[in-house]
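Students often ask what a holo structure prediction actually looks like on paper. The answer is less mysterious than it sounds. You provide the chain, you provide the ligand, and the output is a string of discrete structure tokens encoding the 3D arrangement of the protein together with zinc ion.
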Amino acid sequence: MIRVHIWAEDQPLPFAKEQMRKIYPTGIEGAIADFLNKQPDMMITTAVMSDAKQGLSKRTLKQTDVLIFWSHKHWRELSDEAVDCVWQRVLEGMGLIVLHSAHASKIFARLMGTRTQSLRWREADERQRYWILAPGHPITYGLTGEYFEVPMDETYVEYFEIPQPQEQIFITSTQGGEIFRSGNCWTRGAGRIFYFQAGHETYPVYYQREVQLVITNAVRWAFIEKKVAEWPDWAREAEPIDATK
Ligand code: ZN
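The corresponding structure tokens follow.
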């Protein structure tokens, strides 16, 4: 079983609060949990920032194989202790799926080695066209055609301050003629990281079939059964294997 922990900041801005609660009555974490709970190989837990230990205690993270992470304006309030712990777990082999505005989060910065992971944005009810750049990749399994579209979401635009992705899965073309690297993979230590653009809180993006498929596939891709602590002991003085030569 893949133990998936879905974490969301869940502190919408005052003007977005009513709309978000209407679209996501059980929160973004609840909407994602609903479709992942249907997967027979996944065990789902959810948490929000107002939970004890901000929903990211050492104990919780130790029991997490893949963390799904959604944050927005309150990213600065996540404790350094929680960030350290997530960072350590990723290096040990925990998968991390960074969604939408979590591009600005402390943990993404720490893992990417960048300053702010800034990008340009506008909220203009625009269609997002996700071009599939890796048709054979596990994250695009089940998607057909050259692209899929999210009818309305926040628009993100380059330049996006990230290290060059190790695998480029999607690039989005916007209605305004720009592009954005919207589905990106990296490894850090033993862990796999996937950034996915979709999911501003005032659009029902996480109910869309293709978006659910990508997140579900990404969980399976990011899952590594054997974490570093379970590897054979290799960090020691190297004895020659063949002493006769
Ligand atoms: Zn947004």
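The domain at 2-228 is CATH 3.40.50.880 (Rossmann fold).
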